[in-house]
Amino acid sequence: MAVTVKAVLGKEKYYTEVTAGENQLITDEPVDKGGQNKGFNPFEILATSLASCTAATLKMYIDRKEWNVEKINVEVELENFPLTKLCVFKRNISFEGTNLDEEQMKRLHLIADACPVHKILTHDIEIQTKFS
After folding, report:
1. Taking the model in full, what pTM does it have?
2. How far apart are alpha carbons 4 and 30 in whole angstroms?
3. Where are the domains of the chain?
4. In which domain of life is the source organism classified (predicted)?
């Protein structure tokens, strides 16, 4: 599956309009980095990708199994260590309005790790850049 996202940054420092198909969002940098904090910063967008994909993947599985779960909470903390080239994602998942047993929780852990964004982030990544 290929997706195309376009980011446009004009004269307003770091304020970037990002478009994917018919959807649009704003990214910016925090004030302490020279931005105006009008939108998610790029690291927040990266963590958002993992959190939202995890939640959707779990929801699809839970619905298929017809388990009663009122709410899925996924919190992702991203810590970047540029000097060591290490990036750590800490993902915390909880469920509300349910009594899942130990076996169900083990299965949901496997399903969370099968989310497509998780797979991308834990496999080889290649970035090809072209200037036009």
Report:
1. 0.92
2. 25
3. 1-40, 42-122
4. Bacteria
**Architecture of the CATH domain 42-122:** 2-Layer Sandwich (3.30)
**Distance, CA of 14 to CA of 112 (rounded, Å):** 33
Q: Pull the structure tokens for residue 107.
A: 């299965």
Among residues 123, 112, 124, 17, which one has the least CA distance to residue 59? 112
Beta strands per DSSP E along the chain: 6-9, 16-20, 23-27, 71-81, 86-96
d(CA 7, CA 20): 9
122 pLDDT tier (thresholds 50, 70, 90): very high
How many whole angstroms separate alpha carbon 46 and alpha carbon 40?
10
CB 93 within 8 A of CB 100: no
Q: In the β-sheet with 6-9, what is the strand arrangement from edge to edge?
A: 6-9, 16-20, 23-27
pLDDT tens string 81-117: 999 999 999 999 999 999 999 999 999 999 999 999 9
